[in-house]
Each structure stands twice: as structure tokens, then as C-alpha cells.
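HUMAN:
Just now I want nothing more than another pair of eyes on a protein record. I would be glad if you read both lines and explained how they fit together. I have put the entry right below:
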Amino acid sequence: MRQIRVLILVVLAAVFGFVVLRLQMRWGSQPDIQPDTAVEPGPLQSGPMQGQAATSQKAVSPPVFEKTLFLVDQQDGSGIRFKHCSGTSDTKPFPSANGSGIAALDYDTDGLYDLYFATGTPFPIDPDQAEHSNRIYRNIGNWKFEDTTELARLGHNGFSAGLAAGDVDNDGFPDLYVTCFGKNYLFQNQGDGTFVRLPDSVGVSDERWSASAAFLDYDDDGWLDIYVCNYAKWSVETQRWCGNRDLNIRTHCNPHSVEPVPDALFRN
């Protein structure tokens, strides 16, 4: 029995020694590459070696750019003096947490993009307030803009959420659709620098809380249709209290606190 144990130990020692020897031979055949040396594959070889990297290695040089890309803030001196009103207050009305949109459109077709800014307003909404309203700035070139809101008749003073621009009547002038907390509005471009708010009878004044909209010709009939993204049901009367009552810290409620409503598609 003792001889068998000795034989087993001899065999195990021989196997272990063989494995160690093989590993040493394998490791010794690998090239010595410093970990801090960057390498890149050489040119591809023709013939049987095509598709494999050449064995030569060299340090990678940093890329050299002939020009530097940078952006310059052109706000100062541009003539744009728009100030957004979120509509927030100590009661943290839900819509005031979302902000409003902006539309870039060439409403006078002079080849320069003009800017239309949407804004919110405090709750409850005062339809007669004149402190907060949407503003449109006409591009006069060279990064200069002029406020033409009154002339264009685009000073909507409700709670605007999103904007979409598109030529609804195919007259060559972009029209504007304004999504709101409350009734949405479609403004028709008259082609003379002014807009007219179309009546509810047009059929696009969704009175639910709409967040944004997009123009598209979904049925390919040559007329732009309107897709409206609606948000949720909410009112000042049903506003929930969210936050930490013990510390008397009130915050905006999260989206799970409101009931979602379906979107709408208006065919032109």
C-alpha cells in the first residue's frame, strides 16, 4: 500500500513539472511590450497576409487639427431680450416644472431664420395679464434681431408649452401652432408680416394640456397634418402637495401624480 502511494506522488510530481515547463516555454516566447507604450497596427500586407496587421509597432501620435472649432455667445447686442416665465410659485404648480419651447422659422421668407419664443404664466392663469407673452424676433442679418411681436400679432399671453412651424395652407409662408395648458392655437401667416389666430371651428384647438406638436403629411395628400402630444390631466383645484411636510419643504410632484391623456392627430 505504501509503494502505491509513493508511485502516485511520483506521477503527480512529474505531471506538475511538465505543466510548469510548458508554461515557461510559452511565456518566454511572447514579445516584451511596455504597458505605457501605445501601439497601432501597421499597413495591411498584400497576398496571403492581407487583412492582418503588420508586425511593426510604433507610438501613436496625437491628431493634429488645422482649425479649431469654437462657439461664440452672440446674445449681447443681438436685440433679443426675451425672458421666460415658468409660472412657478410656492404652491409648485405642476406645469411650471416643464418649461416652454422655441421655433425657428423664416416667417417673412427673406432667407433668414426668425425666432419665436414661448412662455408660461403664473397660476391661476389671468387671460388679461400683459406682463408675460410669447415673443417673435425678426432676423435682420449679422446676428441682429428686432422684436416684431406686436406687428406680427403673435403675443399670446396664455401658458404656452410647445411650438411647431409649418405651411398649413401651401401659400409659401410658414404658419404657427402653439400648444398650451388649455386651448391650443393655430396662427395663419398672412404673408405680409402678420398672423391671424384661426377660430375654433378650424378643428385643431385641443383644450387638453398639450406639451408639443409636429407638422407632417401622414396621408401624403399634399397638405400638412398636425400631431399633438398631450400630457396629463391637472388643475389648480386638484394640485397635490408633494415634498416633506415635516420640514415644510414643498416640491413639484412627479409625473406619476397625474393621469395621462392620449395624443391627437388632426388631418388637414
Remarks:
- The helical segments are 2-28, 149-152.
